[in-house]
Specification:
The complex is a heterodimer.
Chain A lengths: L3 H29 L4 H13 L2 H26 L7 H18 L5 H30 L3 H21 L4 H4 L21 H4 L11 H18 L1 H11 L1 H6 L4 H28 L11 H11 L4 H23 L5 H15 L1 H21 L1
Chain B lengths: L2 H31 L7 H19 L2 H25 L4 H24 L28 H5 L4 H19 L1 H11 L1 H6 L4 H28 L10 H11 L4 H19 L1 H4 L5 H17 L21
Classes of the chains: A mainly alpha, B mainly alpha.
């Protein structure tokens, strides 16, 4: 019998190996760039955890990717690959702006929850479309979510340029490359307003919403019937169907919930940090990072929190590394290598299986 | 502009814009026909675009840049091949990883080699004009103006559509590729190596996507800029699906998508009042409609995306 500890170690072995190998490959690149990896990594961690302020910067960087990580993880639990967190994030952020503008006279205590809920619904619908197309027509969600990402991007750009532009909404303003801002009372509280030690850090209470979301998803997945059904469909759709659990219903539900989490990422980012949405030519990237976050966190909500912190550290520490004269792209390479090793999970299994075989052989010899 | 000249300008622009899409989509056709989903087309295009510029700078010969783009495209695709085929890993994760790697690696090398970020210097000689050997085409009345706006890549892309069609549907190799993509177990039983066939196809997709990248850098703007691929790998993926995993279908889809982009770019000249964002959206909407099957459903090869284990029952 395996102990509880061995079971946990079994599931975390792969991502831990992958992260270590990622840092090793990163170190090689740093040497190629003519720097000392120890100095570089010291700068990386100093820059992201060295002071309360820099930790605050890490917290705000990790906030959106915890949400998108949860989004991807939840979909994975239902056997679905949500590459659409990007588009769902955009849907959530743009609807947050709309809600903020339409109800701009409401007090913050009502307006903020309303914006966040509308963000969840918008992202949920965007994700739900892919779920519906999969359930109804059998169209693979990877393809539809990629397409929906770009449809969201261009729709958002259109709205930013026209309907939601300050030029349209505020008399006497000129056209901008961004939307009107959310009203003052809809902005989330900054952590430095609670603890002055956070000084200039942009960290906001969105991180607590992210942690709450992780705990909520944990309970939903592992302690409720809804979660049990979603996981059953993920493990074996046909067996689930035989047991009276609808594959179709849970596919749509899981994609709606996954989309809702990414939509919430957008709404929290708008109310907590950016306050308006820009016209952009590229996807924001939080959704793709969310894939890495989910996989490193072994698709477990609490694992996602831990790996979200890791990716927040990488993202935030990159700046400090840049100041130490090391190309900041190293952190991107580390992320990619981690993902490569996770995709090739058999590399890790292969190594450990060979060690086991050796151990067995040596026993046989005895 | 005179009306005739506008039509020529739109068509020429559409063909030039379709060229990288066609090349990458053909890569997608090879890979997916053999059963390997290639989400990494975007990343391979980035790698191709970067190394084409780098080697053109080093050698002074843009054609050697093209060769480098193909070689490094193949090397990048080899990562996908190893993960997807030998390790039976998740092909979508592997593709996402390649895209991430390509963005960071190209930016890293850019900074390392030129000590700057954003974009490389322009290459001394590029392939942005109609090749000298084909200048006689420009003398053809009316159509001559069209040819004068081509790049060598335009001709290469269309020739490769024919080659791909021929290989896939008229040769024993093509039959093997399609068999492996539809029913690998049956293919293996009659002596076709599933691993070798898939490796070949994934490497070919790397070659073609690398070439697509070169057509965008040294074939269009004469330099490499971060973010220049801007989702074109995903449009190529869409075109491949819209074209029902068929080289000619994919080409037609690319031409259609190229035309919508050309109209978007030249909208003001033509006098089209449509919001440009909606024109840019057409490829993605069209692909979803094609998949849902309103007009003849697009169906993927039966074993597309499924890892294959030798000797498994």
């Amino acid at each position: 019998m395996k102990t509880r500890f061995e079971k946990i170690w079994d599931s975390f072995r792969l991502p831990i190996f992958a992260v270590i190998l990622g840092f090793v490959v990163g170190a090689i690149c740093i040497v190629i760039a003519g720097s000392n990896p120890l100095v570089a990594y010291a700068a990386l961690f100093q820059g992201s955890l060295g002071s309360i302020t820099s930790f605050g910067e890490t917290l705000y960087k990790m906030t959106p990717i915890v949400f998108t990580g949860l989004s991807v993880a939840l979909a994975f639990r239902c056997g679905l690959f949500n590459i659409g967190a990007e588009g769902q994030y955009i849907a959530g952020s743009i609807v947050a702006i709309v809600t903020g503008w339409v109800f701009k006279d409401m007090p913050g205590i009502i307006l903020i929850p309303m914006i966040l809920i509308m963000g969840i619904i918008a992202g949920g619908i965007w994700g739900g479309i892919a779920g519906y197309l999969k359930a109804r027509f059998g169209v693979h969600e990877v393809i539809t979510t990629i397409m929906l990402n770009y449809i969201a991007l261009h729709t958002s750009n259109y709205l930013v340029r026209t309907v939601l532009n300050p030029e349209t909404l505020i008399p006497g303003s000129i056209r901008e490359a961004f939307t009107v801002s959310v009203p003052e009372q809809a902005k989330l509280i900054k952590l430095n307003a609670i603890l002055p030690q956070f000084t200039y850090s942009s960290a906001h209470i969105g991180i607590f919403i992210a942690i709450a979301a992780a705990i909520f998803i944990y309970f939903l997945l592992f302690k409720t019937t809804v979660g049990y059904e979603i996981r059953s469909v993920g493990l074996s759709p046909d067996a689930a169907e035989y047991g009276g659990i609808s594959k179709q219903k849970n596919t749509i539900l899981a994609m709606f919930l996954a989309g809702g989490l990414s939509g919430l990422a957008g709404a929290v980012q708008v109310t907590g940090l950016i306050y308006s949405v820009n016209q952009v030519s590229m996807l924001p990237g939080y959704g793709f990072t969310g894939i890495s976050v989910a996989l490193v966190g072994v698709n477990h909500p609490l694992g996602v929190l831990a790996s979200g912190l890791l990716f927040g550290i990488l993202d935030n520490g990159a700046r400090q590394m840049q100041l130490a004269g090391i190309p900041k792209e190293i952190t991107g390479i580390i992320q990619a290598v981690i993902l490569i090793f996770i995709a090739g999970e058999l590399i890790v299994k292969f190594i450990s299986d060979r060690n086991k075989k050796k151990a067995i052989k040596s026993k046989e010899v005895e | 502009m005179a009306e005739g000249a506008i039509v020529i300008a739109v068509i020429a622009s559409a063909l030039r814009l379709a060229t990288p899409l066609i090349l990458a989509a053909l890569g997608g056709v090879f890979s997916e026909r053999s059963g390997v989903v290639n989400i990494g087309l975007e990343g391979i295009m980035i790698i191709g675009a970067f190394f084409a510029v780098l080697f053109t700078h080093i050698t002074g010969n843009p054609w050697l840049g093209v060769v480098a783009a193909m070689v490094f495209g193949i090397l990048t695709a080899a990562i996908l091949a190893f993960l997807a085929i030998n390790l039976r890993g998740n092909q979508v994760i592997a593709g996402v990883a390649i895209n991430l790697l390509a963005v960071s690696l190209s930016a890293f090398l850019l900074e390392l080699i030129w000590q700057r970020s954003g974009a490389t210097p322009s290459v001394p000689v590029a392939l942005t004009t109609n090749p000298k050997a084909l200048e006689f085409l420009e003398k053809i009345p009316v159509l001559g103006d069209l040819f004068s706006k081509f790049t060598p890549f335009v001709y290469i892309a269309f020739i490769l559509v024919g080659v791909t069609y021929y290989v896939l549907f008229k040769t024993p190799l093509g039959l093997r590729i399609r068999a492996v993509g539809e029913h690998p177990r049956a293919a293996e039983t009659v002596g076709i190596s599933v691993y070798k066939t898939r490796w070949l196809c994934v490497l070919l997709s790397g070659l073609l996507a690398g070439l697509a990248g070169a057509s965008l850098s040294i074939g269009t703007i004469s330099l490499f800029r971060e973010g220049m691929i801007a989702g074109q790998g995903f449009i190529a993926l869409a075109a491949m699906i819209f074209g029902k995993w068929h080289p000619v279908g994919a080409m037609l889809a690319c031409l259609f998508f190229g035309l919508t982009s050309a109209i978007q770019i030249l909208a003001q000249t033509i006098g089209i009042a449509w919001a440009p964002e909606f024109l840019l959206m057409i490829p993605y909407v069209a692909t979803i409609i094609a998949l849902v099957g309103v007009v003849g459903k697009a169906v993927a090869p039966a074993s597309d995306g499924l890892p294959y284990e030798k000797g498994e029952k």
